[in-house]
Design goal:
The complex is a heterodimer of chains A (about 280) and B (about 325). Chain A is mainly alpha-helical and about 280 residues long. Chain A has 2 domains: about 55 residues, no CATH class; about 210 residues, Orthogonal Bundle (MetI-like fold). Chain B has a 6-stranded mixed β-sheet, sandwiched between helices. In chain B, strands 13-17-14-15-16 form a 5-stranded antiparallel β-sheet, with no helix packed on it. The longest helix of chain B has 18 residues. Chain B is globular and about 75 Å long. The model of chain B has no long low-confidence stretch (mean pLDDT about 90). The chains are: A mainly alpha (about 280), B alpha+beta (about 325). At the A-B interface, helix 8 and helix 9 of A face strand 6 and helix 2 of B.
Chain lengths: ~280, ~325
């Protein structure tokens, strides 16, 4: 906003609102991280206090690293998330390109059908999915999770990407056709780089629910070898006793990889937006 | 080198018919311009020639060979787009060479051809730059260079000057005219700007609502328009149309007279009228009159003239330059 138009009071109010929202959003994260570094008694005595030399303790992290195979859980989560995002982006972009670029009978209907998944939660189909996975012999494999998450992520991806692909200049695609590029080359070399900001948006929206999901790992892949981080952290939550140190430490650790991925994608997102603005 | 023959080309999107049977012949080395108001189907026709749209029916022959089932890259054409359509991820040199590279041309041959085209368009200092680092005029030159490098049978231009500012438009227009003289290539050019059409074309094709209204050289269209549409479309400011009965003329429904074929006088003349508005353009003066006989009349005078609104003047049309149109809006020869 230009200086001439910015009223100081207005700016202050906007910042106040944004700061308030940031505090509210960050508070649970802050609480989790802070308490993961405290001893068990300190957590219950003063949950809001930051760790002091007397209350500082790494017992939670020690438990997490000793009990169970947490490195393995991280690997599982990463594999599932990264492969699912890659598949969602690839297939979502391809479907979006077909829907936005080619005129064929039933185009609109197919687009609506593919977008239906945004409105209907995939968990409604859990029983059928489980039956299918059992029949296919995929229970307790990461493949089952990847398949489900890909299906879950596709509708939104197609919806967002097809809107963006409509904005890519027809002339550019036609120039490629005249120069003898195949439709695949046009898609991968001309269109995809131009919709990169949208791809980053889709990646972020897809990634977070997958990483945080507890439901499908619990149902489809609860075995020790295929546990994800969120499921792994659950073993410290008992019916009668909960090891809060361990739970909070596990959750704090679980934030890190997803933050790294987010930073990567959001930089792409910002770069895409600014490069588009200057034309 | 490059001739084109279109036979009863029809194109419909759903039930909406955009091209209603186009027949056209373009001889080798001709510069043909499709001109018409927006939505007349001229761009669609160009796309059909390029192979970017399939015609619903009809035949397209390039150099005598039927190309309806040939993909665009194999038709021996090159196209220049209004939005330049340069590949954003490639530098100028690779942008120009991509078509040849795809066709499997040897590296050395590509380099020679790119060097030749870039010298022709003075693009040498920019060969290593990306399109984002070029100005609009430079980008359009690169797009033209990309077309030259392919050494096509047919050059297709889709409103190539519309995105340029006025000064650059004139300059690029000159370059395209020079290019046509030097390459002696067949060029087909789409525009909605009748000035571009008049200045560049050997042959103008006037399109309206998906059909050809008239084909002819610029001067033919100006001097002998086939109907009211062409008469009104070619020439600026627009021709004046006067109902024939107001002038007491029989045998025609409408009389057309171009603004530059009317003389003005303060003393006497055929039609008495009052000046409504005057535009002083330096070389020309455009006077708008409300006359008793004809209603609103536009008059174009050469040089500077001191008329002001509310002046009473007499307008006299040049009898030899009147155009007469019948009840079907066709010109009467």
């Amino acid at each position: 906003m230009s200086k001439a138009r910015a009223a100081p009071l207005r700016t202050a109010l906007i910042h106040l609102a944004l700061i308030a929202y940031t505090v509210v959003a960050l508070f649970p994260v802050f609480l989790t991280v802070v308490n993961s570094f405290k001893s068990r008694n300190a957590i219950f005595r003063e949950p809001m206090a930051v760790p002091t030399p007397s209350t500082f303790s790494l017992v939670g992290y020690e438990t997490v690293l000793q009990q169970g195979d947490f490195i393995g859980y991280f690997q599982n989560s990463l594999v599932v998330t990264v492969v699912s995002i890659a598949l969602v982006l690839l297939f979502g972009a391809m479907a979006a390109f077909a829907l936005s670029e080619y005129r064929f009978r039933g185009n609109t209907l197919l687009g609506l059908y593919l977008a239906l998944g945004i409105m209907i939660p995939i968990r409604l189909g859990t029983v059928a999915i489980l039956q299918g996975m059992v029949a296919a012999g995929l229970v307790n494999t990461l493949t089952s999770l990847i398949l489900v998450y890909t299906a879950q992520g596709l509708p939104l991806a197609i919806f967002i990407l097809s809107e963006f692909m409509r904005t890519v200049s027809d002339d550019l695609k036609n120039a490629g056709r005249i120069d003898g590029l195949s439709e695949y080359a046009i898609f991968f070399r001309l269109v995809l780089p131009l919709v990169r900001p949208a791809m980053a948006t889709v990646a972020v929206f897809t990634m977070i629910p997958i990483w945080n999901d507890l439901w499908f790992p619990l149902i489809l892949a609860p075995g020790e070898a295929t546990k994800t981080v969120t499921l792994g952290a659950q073993m410290f939550i008992g019916q009668f006793v909960t090891n809060w140190n361990a739970v909070l430490s596990a959750l704090s650790l679980a934030i890190l990889p997803v933050m790294v991925l987010y930073v990567i994608f959001s930089r792409q997102l910002i770069r895409g937006i600014t490069s588009g603005a200057v034309k | 080198m490059g001739s084109l023959e279109l036979k009863s080309i029809r194109k419909a999107f759903g039930t909406h018919e955009v091209l209603k049977g186009i027949d056209l012949e373009v001889k080798d080395g001709e510069f043909v311009i499709f001109v018409g108001p927006s939505g007349c189907g001229k761009s669609t026709l160009l796309r059909v020639i390029a192979g970017l749209e399939d015609a619903t029916s009809g035949s397209v022959r390039i150099d005598g060979a039927e190309v309806v089932n040939t993909p665009p890259a194999k038709r021996g054409i090159a196209m220049v787009f209004q939005s330049y359509a340069l590949y954003p991820h490639l530098n100028v040199k690779d942008n120009m060479g991509l078509g040849l590279k795809q066709a499997g041309t040897e590296r050395a041959e590509i380099d020679t051809r790119v060097a030749k085209a870039s010298a022709m368009l003075s693009l040498d200092p920019y060969l290593a730059r990306r399109p984002a680092e070029l100005s609009g005029g430079q980008r359009q030159r690169v797009a033209i260079g990309r077309a030259i490098v392919r050494e096509p049978k047919l050059f297709l231009f889709d409103e190539p000057l519309s995105n340029l500012d006025a000064a650059l438009r004139v300059q690029t227009r000159l370059e395209i005219a020079g290019l046509h003289r030097r390459l002696k290539a067949t060029m087909i050019y789409v525009t909605h700007d009748q000035v571009e059409a008049m200045t560049l074309a050997d042959k103008i094709v006037v399109l309206n609502a998906g059909a050809i209204e008239q084909i002819g050289s610029p001067m033919e269209l100006y001097n002998r328009p086939a109907n009211i549409f062409v008469a009104g479309f070619i020439g600026s400011p627009q021709m004046n149309f006067i109902p024939a009965e107001k002038l007491g003329q029989s045998g025609a429904k409408t009389i057309g007279v171009r603004p530059e074929h009317i003389a003005l006088s303060r003393e006497n003349g055929a039609w008495k009228g009052r000046v409504i508005h005057v535009e002083h353009l330096g070389a020309d003066t455009i006077v708008y009159l409300e006359t008793e006989v004809t209603g609103l009349l536009t008059v174009r005078l050469f040089g500077e003239h001191r008329y002001a609104p509310d002046d009473v003047v007499y307008a006299t049309p040049d009898k030899a330059s009147l155009h007469r149109f019948d009840t079907n809006d066709r010109a009467i020869a």
